[in-house]
Amino acid sequence: MRCPYCQHQESKVVDSRPTEEGASIRRRRQCMACGRRFTTYEQVEVVPMTVKKKSGGIEVFDRNKILKGLIKSCEKRPVSLEAMEKAVDDIEMTLEAKMVKQISSEEIGEMILDRLKDLDEVAYVRFASVYRRFQDIDSFMAELEELRKKKTD
């Protein structure tokens, strides 16, 4: 760490403690050249995750978009807001665990479908019909058959 007084490159940490809110660490340092003390703060660098859309556009990940989609799919269904929020938390934790800077909207959509399958089958079909853009009744029926097959397995 560079000394703010003499610009020397080397310093030693004299004291280290977390800040009151716990979001950073306060360090007291002493310059190895001039001996003066100064304070630095260390924080975790958060790199926002981005989402690559089907259209090719890129936007910052927004968990609220996922929650809005779940709420719309589960409208008038016996699914609690807490269950939907838990699904969003699970998706967000899974994405963070992957430690990638960018993810495709298709991957997120599939993760949502996986969670909806367990929450409510009607909500699953609602979301799938919009997400997969069913063109006709045959593609809709194929999705229903796939869901029925997985349910019996």
From TrEMBL:
It holds the Pfam family Zn_ribbon_NrdR. A zinc finger (unnamed) spans 3-34. It comes from the Bacteria. Residues 49-139 form the ATP-cone domain. Its cofactor is Zn(2+). The keyword RNA-binding does not apply. Keywords: ATP-binding, DNA-binding, Metal-binding, Nucleotide-binding, Repressor, Transcription, Transcription regulation, Zinc, Zinc-finger. Binds 1 zinc ion. Belongs to the NrdR family. NCBIfam families: transcriptional regulator NrdR. Negatively regulates transcription of bacterial ribonucleotide reductase nrd genes and operons by binding to NrdR-boxes. PANTHER family: TRANSCRIPTIONAL REPRESSOR NRDR. This is Transcriptional repressor NrdR. The lineage of its organism: Bacteria, Bacillati, Bacillota, Tissierellia, Tissierellales.
